[in-house]
Fold this protein.
Amino acid sequence: MIITAQQLSRLDSRTRINTINSLSGFKSASLIGTVNEQGGYNLAIISSIVHLGADPALVGFIARPHTTRRDTLENILATGVYTINHIHEGIIAQAHQTSARYDAGISEFDATGLTPLITDHSAAPYVKESHIRYSLRFVEKLDIAANGTHMIIGEVSEVQLPDDSLDASGKIDLEAAGTVAISGLDHYHSTRTLNRFSYAKPDQPLCSLLTEPV
C-alpha cells in the first residue's frame, strides 16, 4: 500500500490522526505532573518525550498549540517545575483517563484514583504508583512555527527508581520496572529485550552484551 500526501489530506480528521500518530512507531508513555499557582495538581499523559542530552541532563516534550487552556503548559511556565512519571502495566487505564478534558478545578489525580506524591525536593507532584519518576526544572520553550506547537525543555533535578533497577553500567532496567510503550493514541504495549550490543566502531565487529540473546 502506498499513501500519498494528497490521499492523506483527503482522509477524515480522525483517520488521518490515527495514521500519522502510528507512523512514528512505538513511543514512551509517561505522565506529567504539575502544580498551579493556587496549589492545585494536574496530571496529563504524554507520548512525545525525548532525550536531549546527558550533561546537562535535558529532556524535552511537545506541547500542543497554546490557543486554548493548556494546564500542563501553563503550570510549567508559571512555576518552573514538573515531574515525569513512567506508566507501567498496573496503571494503564488510569493513565489513559487523564487525557479526558476535565474542568479546570478538577485534578486528574482525584478523577483517576492516582496518588500525588509530594517531596521536599519539588512542589510538583510525582505519581506515587509510578515505579520510575523524575522531576525537572523548566529551561526553555521553543515555538515551532510549522504547526504552532511548543517544545518544552527541562533539566532533570531528581530521579526516583527501584533500588535494583540500575545495572553496573548505569543502564535502567525498564522491563523489570514494567514500563510500557504506546503507539498511536490508545494502544499500549509491553516490551521484550531482543539483544544488547557493544559500542559500535567501524573497525570492530559487534558483540552481544547479553549472556543469552533472544
Remarks:
- The first strand starts at residue 27 and ends at 28.
